[in-house]
Design goal:
201 residues, 4% strand, elongated, mainly alpha
Length: 201
Amino acid sequence: MKKVFIYSSFERFWHWTQAALIVMLMLSGFEIHGSYVLWGFEKSVQLHRHLAWGLIVLWAFAIFWHFTTGNWRQYIPTTQKLAEVAIYYTKGIFEHLPHPYKLTKLRKHNPLQRLAYLFFKLIISPATWISGLLYMYFTEWTAWGLAGYLSLFWVAGIHTAAAFLMMAFFCGHVYMAFVCSPITAHIRAMITGYEEVEEDE
């Protein structure tokens, strides 16, 4: 095994900042829905607004970075080794078999990760911020000429559904982060930028 620099400084900053913002958005968002009391309704609404704008700004920088560096190609779906990776995560991982996908700087995501991240970027994220902004600026719908076309019930429902999808993705992501040997290898890689790969890579 050898250590290879895989994740740039911006990738690591973006990853951890996004994670922190999403956790805080989930905590404040579900408090707004009355699931529990943490900061209080008014403070949670205010916090949720600020965090949402922070995440949107971060996403804007991330999108710019992905397109200017060419890293958007990392998310192009592929069926190459898709079945092998699926079998590994459902069976092989419990038998301590080697991962069928070999990580490189140009191929950071295995086929299942590519599909999951693509779903996150093309479905979950847009549904979250479009419904969120519409929800946030509900009082402006008439001025924007949208009052007759949108329903607050459906906008709120889509935003809540997107939040649950975001939470499911987040939980799955955290779970997969610790499915490795040693158990902290992926976390360490997202802190240092270095992953351990096979010598022939």
